Amino acid sequence: MYKQLEIKFRNTDDETTKNVVWDIRDFPLAQKWASALQKDYLDTDARIEKQFMLHGWVYPKTKIERTIPFMCEELNFHIERVNQYCKEHKIDYNIDLHFDAKTVDQEQLNKIHHHFEILIGQIWNVSEYWDQFDKSHQFSVNNFNWLCHEIESQLRGLEAYEDNKSSSSVVICMEPIVRHDLIEADGDYDHFEMSHQPFGAIRMHYAQTGKTHREAWHDEDEDIFNSNISGIRYLSGEFDVNFNHGHPGENWDDFEKWCMEKQIDIKDKTLSLGWCFLGDLNRRASDLPEDNIEAMLELWNYDDICGIALYDENNMQLAEKSWNYNWLDWYTERKNKLLEAS
Fold first, then answer.
1. What is the pLDDT of residues 145-203, one digit of tens each?
2. How far apart are alpha carbons 81 and 77 in whole angstroms?
3. Which of 52, 134, 182, 203 has a CA between 20 and 30 Å from the CA of residue 10?
4. pLDDT, tens digit, 9 for 90 and up, residues 193-229
């Protein structure tokens, strides 16, 4: 039985590290998730996607600090590449957007995410455009999604920090991704709940494109097509960690009203509305303060995750994997490799 998850945080300047521990819940879906994390990722040569990992993070001042101006510049670079490719290959598509760190807002981010959805489609319904792009330009399209979410989360994170709050989260994505269908007969959909998110809770990752119903409602996204709104369909060993503090939480009554207006059946559990929590922060084992903001002030000293391990109920290590590259290494390597090939 999987009992604990350990994540090693790292400061990329001084190489100091901190191990943080979670207790894995014992219901079958949580155990199925931990098994997927081990077998699909920790026991393989999978790589962690470090450019899409620390959301809403108040980064320490390091040599490779990840900033909104940098991400806006990169987003403009990828938009220009896609537009040029479409023009050269007579693909009838153009993106009329330009990002500036001083003016970027949620409405503009919704628009670029909408372009991402149109160009990639869904796992079960790939867009007519997607296969017309080579790998290099598919990478640029994917960056619409990655950079969009990173920018919006940093905007929220910095605003929260100024108000003595936290809008931070950890998003663990892997490459190559491995997905498993959720199985209704196994009770996989029974663990989703429209409830308050506990600080430090591990939640199931959205291992598909588009947005969940909650995200579309929360972002007030009027650009998204209904076909790109879907509940979690797949289990992956990937996961998210909630580090929000000081916010009122979701107004689920308003969400239910939104669902009714959109003719979404909130009683249909296969829509996986809400959250599925898989584990809980163990502050004592992590040597973290009981006060949430004090805990975040400690975690914000680190700008990287360099290792993940799993343990059983006897504290025996079942799996461990380290990734010593940083987010800039990861991004630059992929970007240069694909640009050379294009």
1. 989 998 998 999 999 999 999 999 999 999 999 999 999 999 999 999 999 999 999 99
2. 6
3. 203
4. 999 999 999 999 998 877 899 988 988 877 776 777 8
| Radius of gyration (C-alpha) of the chain in whole angstroms | 20
Residue matched to tokens 């300047």:
13
Judged by DSSP in three states, 42 sits in helix
Give the β-pairing of 239-245 and 202-204. Answer: antiparallel
Pairwise CA distance, residues 264 & 226, whole Å: 11
Q: In the structure encoding, which two tokens stand for residue 42, read together?
A: 């920790």
Contacts of 316 (CB under 8 A, 6+ apart): none
Instruction: Tell me phi and psi for residue 320, to 5 degrees.
Output: -155, 140
Distance of CA 155 to the CA centre of its chain: 15
Bridge partner residues of 243 (DSSP)? 168
Taking a C-beta distance cutoff of 8 angstroms, is the pair 15, 21 a contact?
no
pLDDT of residue 124: 73
* pLDDT single digits (tens) 304-333: 999 999 999 999 999 999 999 999 998 898
Structure-block tokens of residue 116:
């991402």
Instruction: Tell me the mean pLDDT in the region 23-48.
Output: 98
Domain count, the chain: 1
Kindly state the tokens that stand for 95. 């993106």
Higher pLDDT pick, 122 / 85: 85
Q: Whole domain around residue 169: which residue ranges? A: 2-341
As given in the structure block, the two tokens for residue 200 are 């430090």
3 state DSSP class of 141? helix
DSSP 233: -
Alpha carbon distance 82, 242 (integer Å): 33
Q: pLDDT tens for residues 239-265?
A: 999 999 998 888 999 999 999 998 999
For 45, phi then psi, to 5°, come to: -95, 20
* One-character DSSP codes across 247-301: S----HHHHHHHHHHTT--TT-GGG--SB-EEEEE-HHHHT--SSHHHHHHHHTT
Residue keyed to tokens 């950890």: 170
Residues 80 and 201: beta-carbon distance below 8 Å: no
Give residue 273's pLDDT band: very low, low, confident or very high (50, 70, 90): very high
